[in-house]
Amino acid sequence: MHDVAVIEDPAVAEASLDPIRARLLAALGEPGSATTLAGRVGLTRQKVNYHLRALERHGLVELVEERRKGNCTERVLQATAASYVISPSALPAVAPDPTRGVDQRSARWLLAVAGRLVREVGELITGAGTEGKVLATLGIDSEIRFASARDRAAFALELSAAVNGLVAKYHDEQAPGGRPHRFVLALHPKITTTTEEPPA
Where are the domains of the chain? Predict the structure, then answer.
């Protein structure tokens, strides 16, 4: 089971968004059968089995084992991932495109960049898996609390200068055999809970 899987096919996305099938996917973080799941989700075994077949057909669950019980065979399944992300590739006609946005300081432009990130990394994961290769990536996730909007602006300027310096140092347009990489950096307010103070 993968930690996260990317759904790129519209039919698979539709199957995963069905409320009953989404509940079954969540329940199948641990192996289960139509019989064991029926009681947990409050449905008949026949109805659960119908939905499990659809999930299996779309590659969202996989067979773990088959157990013989008298004249019957109990099929034990498990979700193929602990969680799923639906790629904008599943809705190609309305997929976000950062090149259409002119305001690179807007939250919606940042959202379009994030959508492109999901789409491209999802495609790279699929390609690497098909070829049996490891995908080289880098991710940094951190939090920072600014004392003021002025400090936030100063941080953005310093960070931009540092990043531009590194890009200028290592970017080589003419390198033989070089491979372009996409570099994405984002900063946004953290969503606060009722126990936290609002961001500056």
Answer: 2-84, 91-137, 138-200
